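Q: Second attempt. The first request was missing the SMILES, so the protein and fe (ii) ion are both included now.
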Amino acid sequence: MIDMLKVPTSLEEEHKELMDSIEMLASGDSKIAKSVKQILIILEPHFEKEEETVVPVLGSLGDLASGIYTDLEEVKERSDALREDYANMLEEHRRIREKVEAASVLAKAEGREDVLNILELLSHHAAVEEEILYPAALLAGKLASMLIIRERSI
Ligand SMILES: [Fe+2]
Ligand SMILES: [Fe+2]
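A: Got both inputs this time. The predicted holo structure:
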């Protein structure tokens, strides 16, 4: 796959911060750490897929909104990959939420507000993706497809 799209720094940073925090919580042998490790098992490959599909497509939004139509093929290709995997991505969010819930129960029982806050940030991140970012990436793909068809018909 060609690799020309920009990555939105805000989202890249958010992924990195979440991953660093979750990895930190998962280190050690405490009950909470073991529970957070279960999140990490699903989260690592999930973030990797997002960074191949959703994240670079979102990086094209600014240009698309300004009418700058470069790299349409790549936007389409990556967005198509997301569309094909959409049900799995949502299922992974569901499984992540399940594990977050289990870890939150332990964190509450131990009065670990710090852990609860990080878990809350992760849940919020997934909700923003489902409500806004994933659909925005699909829309960018649709626009790219339409523009490619238009270019070919001229
Ligand atoms: Fe994400
Ligand atoms: Fe996600």
